[in-house]
Amino acid sequence: MEEWTVEVEHCKSPKEKPKTEELEFGRIFTDHMLVIDYTEPVGWHDARIIPYQPLTIDPSAMVFHYGQSVFEGLKAYYTPDGDIQLFRPEKNLERMNRSNDRLCIPQIDESHVLKAIKQLVHMEKDWVPTAEGTSLYIRPFIISTEPFIGVAPAHHYKLIVILSPVGAYYKEGINPVKIAVENTFVRAVKGGTGEAKTGGNYASSLKAQELCAKQGFTQVLWLDGVEKKYIEEVGSMNVFFKIDGEIVTPSLNGSILEGVTRNSVIQLLKHWQLPVTEKRISMEELYQAHMDGTLEEAFGTGTAAVISPIGQLSWEGKDLHINNGKTGKVAKALYETLTGIQYGKEKDPFNWIEKV
Ligand code: COI
């Protein structure tokens, strides 16, 4: 294997670390960042950890015009033994390459990038918060930097990794949220970019999010982009329901993001020998289950919030109150086991953990 080294430039004036009560999601960043350049025909080169700083990028850089960019999100956790560990980081880098493929961004060497991320996290280990429920959020992203405003795949990119000590993503934490089923806007369509983690998907979700927040909802439930009948995602998370004892989640169809937490939840449920099925689920079916009294639980899954129970779903003027607005047993067990593994408090039968 070719030599892979990461140059390091230490920052001269480290920032003060935030107090636990100051931690929210994604507003504070650590002292250093990782940068790797891509230039044709050389490929990815000049991996370096440098002080966290603003970028100097040409205003004609293609990313500003046509949004050729991808990102990932994963976390580093502080364990009771004082170790720092990552949860299935290789899954995020595999997905980054799938997103790269969809956005015509060159493939990365996943093992090189993972090694560099671990080096960065190790350097910033004092930034990993130790209070319960907190972690260091890792945000790798790639942008096209070539100065050109023609519509085409760029020839120059930057892969950057920044780190942010975080608390809970939703103020509700593990408490149930109120969700509105979105009937006007759609998140993605088959053949579009829904299964890629690209900024455009999130930009196009903002309008619905803004409108639902004005009506007192935390997020929207997205339906399919063609018939607006079938359930796809909730906010920026995958979604699961427990109906008559069976746990179901929409099957991957090209417009749903393949979440690492989604995959881990499915594996955990199978390990517990609980019935779990990936299938197409219509909103009508869900409503019927609610009317029959068989809709037992609903929850979102994602890296940022882990498990987010849904206490109320509003659809076409009808309010579906789920599990009396309380966190369900399955959601609670999943949250406790997943965070138990992530924080090194529970056995890791799947080898999901990678020490830094
Ligand atoms: C996640 O929870 O995995 C997300 O993608 C949320 C992020 C966009 C903040």
Automatic annotation (TrEMBL):
Its cofactor is pyridoxal 5'-phosphate. CDD domains: BCAT_beta_family (cd01557). SUPFAM superfamilies: D-aminoacid aminotransferase-like PLP-dependent enzymes (SSF56752). The modification N6-(pyridoxal phosphate)lysine is found at residue 197. InterPro entries: Aminotrans_IV (IPR001544), Aminotrans_IV_CS (IPR018300), Aminotransferase-like (IPR036038), B_amino_transII (IPR005786), BCAT-like_C (IPR043132), BCAT-like_N (IPR043131), BCAT_family (IPR033939). Its EC number is 2.6.1.42. One of its GO terms (biological process) is amino acid biosynthetic process. Pathway: Amino-acid biosynthesis; L-leucine biosynthesis; L-leucine from 3-methyl-2-oxobutanoate: step 4/4; Amino-acid biosynthesis; L-isoleucine biosynthesis; L-isoleucine from 2-oxobutanoate: step 4/4; Amino-acid biosynthesis; L-valine biosynthesis; L-valine from pyruvate: step 4/4. Pfam families: Aminotran_4. It comes from the Bacteria. Keywords: Amino-acid biosynthesis, Aminotransferase, Branched-chain amino acid biosynthesis, Pyridoxal phosphate, Transferase. GO terms for molecular function: branched-chain-amino-acid transaminase activity. It is an enzyme of class 2 (transferase). It catalyses: L-leucine + 2-oxoglutarate = 4-methyl-2-oxopentanoate + L-glutamate; L-isoleucine + 2-oxoglutarate = (S)-3-methyl-2-oxopentanoate + L-glutamate; L-valine + 2-oxoglutarate = 3-methyl-2-oxobutanoate + L-glutamate. Belongs to the class-IV pyridoxal-phosphate-dependent aminotransferase family. PANTHER family: BRANCHED-CHAIN-AMINO-ACID AMINOTRANSFERASE, SUBGROUP IIII AMINOTRANSFERASE. This is Branched-chain-amino-acid aminotransferase. It comes from Virgibacillus halodenitrificans. The lineage of its organism: Bacteria, Bacillati, Bacillota, Bacilli, Bacillales.
